[in-house]
Design goal:
mainly alpha
Length: 67
């Protein structure tokens, strides 16, 4: 799976976990700082890492409070 596909899958997971689109935009903006997303590999990696972090946090929250 390439990095763009991985990002798309993470976005789907975050939406499933209940994140709103504005929250996801904020996560991406925080990961990139003031940079523009220009399909740059380094920026894609930064976004992927940030999305993975929030996907993990959301999953842990769901597991903890769904009992």
């Amino acid at each position: 799976m390439n990095i763009e596909e991985n990002i798309r899958q993470l976005l789907k997971k975050l939406i499933f976990l209940g994140y709103q689109r504005f929250q996801i935009r904020n996560i991406i903006n925080e990961a990139l700082g003031q940079q523009l997303l220009e399909n740059d590999y380094r920026q894609n990696v930064q976004v992927m890492i940030a999305l993975q972090k929030y996907e993990q946090l959301g999953s842990e929250y769901l597991l903890t409070y769904s009992k």
